[in-house]
Specification:
Helix content is 26%, strand content 0%. The protein is mostly helical and 307 residues long. Among the domains are: 56 residues, no CATH class; 86 residues, no CATH class; 71 residues, no CATH class. The N terminus is likely disordered.
Amino acid sequence: MQVKPIAVSAMLLGALVFVAATPHRAVSQPEAKYVGSEACKECHEDQWKPFQSSTHGLAGHDAAIVADVVNCESCHGPGSAHVEAGGDASSPGFATIHSFKSLSVADANATCTACHQGGQQMHWPQSEHARQKVACVECHSVHAAKSPGQKALLKTANVSQLCVQCHQDKHLALARTAHMPLREGGMTCVDCHDPHGTATPHNLKAATTNELCLTCHADRRGPFLWEHAPVRENCLDCHDAHGSNNQQVLAAKTPFLCQRCHISTRHPSTLYDQPDLASNRLFNRSCVNCHSQIHGSNHPSGKFFLR
C-alpha cells in the first residue's frame, strides 16, 4: 500500500508535536555511594587530620553512637561520585557532596539537628538565634575547634569570646570598672544563658531573673520579714548584670538610684532643699550606709532596712 505524501506529512508533523510536548530531561546526577573517610584524606587532609581526634571523629568508633554511616559522610553525604570527579568542578559528580558553604542556613542546621536532638537543642527551633537564622557552624567548628579539649567544638578559646563577637553591647559593658567575673574566667555567658534556646526570655537558664541570680547570691534570698519591693520584683531594677561603672554593678550611682523611686521622702531630693548641709547628697551620700539591709530585713524593727 502506497502512502500518500499528504499522509506522510501529517505523520511527521504529529511526531514533531509529540517531541515538542515531551518535557526536557536534565542530565541525571550519578548515584553516589558511601566510600569511607579515607577517600577524603587525599584532597582534604587539613580537615581530615584534626577531625580524627575530634568529638565527632571519635564517635565513629562507637557503634552505639553512630551505627551506620560515620565520619565525613555522615554530614556531607555519600562521596563516591565526588571522589571520582577527582577535583574537576565541571564534573556532574563533583557537586553531589554537601558543602555547608553552599547550603542554606536551614538545610545546614538540619544536618546538625538530625543527630543533636533533645536536651539543650530541644528549644532550638523557637530560640532567638534560630529566628535570626544563625547557623550552627557560625559558633561551632567541626574540623578545627579552638576550645580547650575541643569542648563544644567552639570557634574561639572560650564561650564568652564567641558571644561578644555579635553581642558588642555586652562586650562594652564587661569593659566597665564594675563587671561580672567574665573577664577573669570566673564564669561564662552560658552560666546564665543557654544559646540553644530556653522557654524564658533572653535564653535564661531559670524561670525568672531573680531565680537565676539567687542561685549564686543565696544570701539575698528571702522571704524576709520586711521586703524591699524592687528587690522582690527584679534584681535588674537596681543592677546591670553585664557591668557598670558603679559599685556592685548598680545601674546608677547612689543616691540617684534610690531617688528614682524615693522622690518625696524624709530626705531632701535636691541640693536646694533644707537643710541642704545635712543632705545625703552632700554628706554620707550612699543610702546603704544607713539602710544596710536594703535587700530585706528579718529584724522586728527593720521596716526601713536599717538593721
